[in-house]
Task: structure prediction
Amino acid sequence: MDKIRVLIAKPGLDGHDRGALVISQALRDAGMEVIYTGLRQTPKQIVRAAVQEDVDVIGLSSLSGAHNVLFPEVLKELSRNEAEDILVFGGGVIPLEDIQVLEKNGILKIFTPGTSTKVVATYIEQAVAEHRGETPMLQTPPKRVDHIGIAVKSIEETAVFYSNHFHVNVETIAEVPDQGVRVAFLPLGNCKIELLEPLDENSPIHAFIEKRGEGLHHVAFEIDNIQQRLDQLKAEGIRLIDEKPKKGASGNPIAFLHPKSTYGALIELYESKQDAENEGGQ
Ligand code: B12
Result:
């Protein structure tokens, strides 16, 4: 693919330039052509430079609190110049509530302090590849929560609780000897509760219950292309428990991320391909 051309710009009177310089260097290291505007640019100047330099992407950096005015102004200026095909990203000190509004209104993605530069580079590469019609964007949100895993000593005892108090019943029970568990699924809306009972004392679920007692164990996100997702997460620096997917209780491919990389939550990725083919397995 042709080299990606990026304009990194500092709109307004903001004098914080470290983030913009760090991102410029990281994108150069990732093989992109990067032009940096320098400080104190108006939206007009930014768009003029972007059009003249024929860039694929504008990256706006703001730490001054003026993002809600300046970022939309850059988008308007692009539209005035019939240059809306240039993708616009942003970053800096931007409150969480503002991110959603900016992303809804045309800024493709906002990256805040603490973001790894690898994440920014891979995101831009994928967004440009999709925009050029080369490969579809992989970085979409999971489709839904498929199930919530709960570690229990006895499926039968716990099932009585769900049946009597929430009128939710067990749909299927299966043994997964590889993982040392017996599991029961209880459908609940478009999600399921998965009760996990240890098969024996060597089971990781036995160790979990010994250490923390019965309770919430993991959350499973339904996604497509599990191997690609795992490779992507690994490249972004996320620690994986499973580098290759394994077969879950439903027979579908699953993999776990390490809680050390996920702020303490054990996250399972669950690929739903077989569900679609078989019209709804587990
Ligand atoms: C260093 C610093 C300064 C330095 C700036 C030096 C320089 N040349 O950059 C100095 C001392 C000059 C300074 C001055 C001021 N500062 Co100051 N500063 C900071 C501080 C401590 C760190 C910023 C930094 O360099 N971080 C390191 C870089 C690498 O991180 P980053 O910029 O966030 O970039 C990352 C991401 O945000 C993202 N990113 C950033 N830009 C972009 C762009 C794109 C395209 C992408 C994809 C990603 C991306 O990726 C980067 C890598 O992860 C922050 C507090 C903080 N923790 O953020 C306050 C902070 C930004 N400063 C602040 C303020 C108020 C000021 C002053 C107004 C103080 C004053 N009264 O004088 C002045 C204003 C100066 C001016 N002219 O604008 C406030 C801003 C408040 C707000 N926005 O609501 C902050 C948040 C401090 C605070 N908590 O109040 N500051």
